[in-house]
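re the bet — no i am not wrong, look at it urself. input seq straight from the record:
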Amino acid sequence: MPNTKISAKELIIAKALEMYNNCGVEYVGVRELAKELGIKGGNITYYFPTKNDLLREISNRVTESNAEILGKSKIPGLYGFLEMNRLLYFNQYKYRSYFISLPLWLQQDVEFAQTYQAMQVSRRVTFTQELKTLATGGYLLAISDEDLAPLLAALSITNRLWISEATLDGLIADEKLVVNTYLGRLAGLLNFIASEKGKADIRKFLKELK
């Protein structure tokens, strides 16, 4: 029985994510999800009493999978930083409907908004340390704490909103194309503050994207 319940729960999550990605979170409710799965709505609300409960589960999986990527041993330098972001971008693409609907959800769910903001603070600390390490290693030009703040803001905007921009640009249907396109833009942003050593890493990374 426990295995059956876990299997059913995973099936619901997988189908919900598929439908959210194809149709949009706002246009898929319990009724539509149950019809697609060929089950009763009660089978879904048993695991997820509300749609927000289902969305929180998806959010937890985004956070956990991102943390796993960030926790892996990284290749040194800007090449390694960009490679880490490549893995993050592909993971974001898997959960793209979540990121597209995120601004509206943050407005509607105060509890989730507080959790999300705390997570962003933690993420900012991680990326601050990454950039300082790159500067110390000679891959980035020397950056003052004052100059670091707008750079972090630009990276944050790029990393959080690229999926929404890609949707508006009509690129979102092609996973590899869209990820490579926006990784290229991220690399271009970093190129402005990269040393010659760092620029060599960027060129190597971009060459492998082709």
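see?? DSSP finds ten helices and no strands in the chain. told u. also The mean pLDDT is 90. so pay up
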